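PROTOCOL LOG
Step 1. Enter all chains and additional molecules of the complex.
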Amino acid sequence: MSTDDLQRDLTRRTENAPQELLTRSFFFLCAVLSIVTTVAIIVMLTTEAAKFFSLTAPLMGVEGPTASLVDFLTGTEWIINNEQFGVLPLVSATLAITLGSAVVAIPLGVATAIYLSEYASPSAQRVLKPALEVLAGVPTVVYGFFAVVYITPALRTIVPGLGTFNMLSASIVVGIMIIPMVASISEDAMSAVPDSLRQAGYGMGATKFDVSVGIVVPASLSGIFSSFILALSRAIGETMAVTVAAGSQANLLNPLNPVDYLEGALPMTAAMVNLLTGDVTGGGVAYRSLFAIGLTLFVITLVMNVISDVVAQRYREEY
Amino acid sequence: MATRADVIEDFGHVSRTVGTVFRYLLLAATLFGIVALAVLLIYVANDAIQPLTADPGWHLTFFLTLVVPTLAVGGYLLRTDPASARFGAAVVGLLAVSTMFAGGAAMIFVDIVEPVTWFGYVLALTLALAAVVVIERFDRRLPFLARFAAAGAAIVGSLAVIPGFVQSLPVYPTDGIMLTLALGAPVALAVGRYAAAGAGRRGTALSVLTGVAVVGSGAVLGPLLAIGAVPATVLLSVAVVPTAGYAAGTVRRNADRRPGLAFTGVVLGGTILGAVAVDALGFAGPQSWVDWGFLTSAHSGTAADAGLYPAIGGSILLMATVAALSFPLGVGAAVYLEEYAPDNRFTRFIDVNISNLAGVPSVVYGLLGLGVFVTYLGQPTGTVLIGGATLALLILPIVIISAREALRSVPDEMRQASYGMGATRWQTIKNVVLPRAFPGILTGTILALGRAIGETAPLIMIGAPNVLFSLPTGLSSKVSAMPLQVYAWASLFASEPFYQAAVPAGVVVLLIVLLSMNSVAIVLRNKYQNQQ
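Step 2. Run joint prediction.
Step 3. Record the structure below.
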């Protein structure tokens, strides 16, 4: 090899060599795919939902039956065959599921997080953490089946008036499902509290209970709240468990009234599944109502995720 | 002085009751979910397998041949030599999990992909890879684009020509021989190299040849034992050869773990002995709903005859599609974000966007699949391809996030060392970063696939049929999946017999598949963490 060759080899610029360019652009395209996905979701949901409402349908050039936006948002009847598309019964059922699962998951999840971060020995953590992961890993349709076949009959011994499909057992299984989410995010926040704070507490004569409840929990409050919001957004989007367990009767519920949990209802996600397993043919107004509910769902969960992010970022105590 | 003593006394009294009660309340709350799920799982397993319907003699026989010796040997090993005990248990676990995967693979080769087609594609890929190696070796000074184009042409050409050519041959070898060459040989090559690592060329060649011979014996003996050549070769190459290779390799490197094999032997021997004894003594086993008929028959209107076969096949094909799509795309995105991306507004936007996508409900992904693939691209509803693509989009954020974590754990010194030796960025990624991060990436991908295999809602949204009587045969045929079939039984056929028989059995099969996938991922993760 001559010196010229050596010189060229040592000083070549590789940044824009064809091989480098090719691989870099491939990786870049992969990363951009996530943005394309988001844009596709938004564009598709809004255009299809726009065809559903009578206000916007003419702009999309759609003929045929449509629904008015006001009726959609304020109507209290959801009867597909009568073309009555009032979303309130669905929203009330979703709210009921969310509230019910929160009652189960929030206390249990926070208690689990405190135990794992403050009390459990490392060997106990090694056993408990994968076991909790299993809770989140069981398919949701399986949870729905559990609710109908095992939990409802068991609850009937306590609450005699319980229907076959009811919101109570649906809320319980959704709650069990989201415990790991509350627990793991809260536990991360609690583990991030510096040990010096705990030592200071012990130095003042506090007991372990005082330190856990009086120091660690307040110091990690932003993380705990962001875990609540994320877990509830998961409960709102939860589909198969509620489809199987909550029934298919679109009743308008009062989520704050415990008696309403004894009967079935139709949450938004279950309504979407029912629309498709029924005889909905592509292109009809019922088909488009699917996208209107989907858009509502997407907006709610997106807003909750963003809020959770903001809470975690802005209200974090920096040490 | 008396008052001061009181004060000191007061300081000395701290009630432990509150703390103790609190601690046990926390423990109870932690265990609540786990215990609740465990109870539900016991109920569903009891409904599906019905162990109490078996003859007491059946239980007694297996207790004597399997449970007692296993406990005795296992307990003794755990006390004297825990490392060997773990090794013996790992061999048993590997055999169980790989046998299950072998069942799935055998199903593919019996009903979906003909061995000839598989043989043709493997041959084509081998020749193409050989051509690429030759092109790379030919002359390094050839411009990169020319080499790249030549390699691409070799791969595309060989894949286009050779499978068709092989199928058009008037005479070709039997299915058993073809599978031995196209499935057994690659597996034997990998396993043999692992088992004989450091034993030199002859040792490696010998162990690879042994592996091929074992698989080949299945091709010959399978038909004689009424198993069939295809299932026998698949079982040998997917389950037996890897397990044996793992056991042999470990024992060769750590001779002191040899006692662990006694545990494996006791479990296997006890199972076989128990089965033979039960058969000879005429004790009836449990009337399990999860039986051979359930696994190999299609849906039926009566719960007792309903089976999961098309759904299992559908799930396997879906998982293959999802893995093929989400693995390269997810790892690619992670590599870009970790290794290339400048710290600017656009990168942060992608970052936030990915974490938001991870929180989008799965039904909305189903709507995306329905809207984009079916309505806009005009694909038929409910096919393997759009089902797989939708599920791949669903798990992509999870794959990206876990792959980024794995890439981040590669120490920067390794990258600097590689750059210091004159490697380019892509060479560094290819030779240093990716191999080091691979186990972590694999773990994350398996866990994400576990999520995808349990998803039902997106499949319903894209119009996958609730009831399917035959296996999907390709990417464009209609697909069902295990959770979808369970949903159909639990809601559309909601009746007492289905709740008692078909649904629990389906749930048990689905959970076994999921748990074994998760355990593979967890074992990989532990091994990887110990190495670091």
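Step 4. Note key features.
Chain A has a mean pLDDT of 86.
Chain A is about 70% helix and 0% strand.
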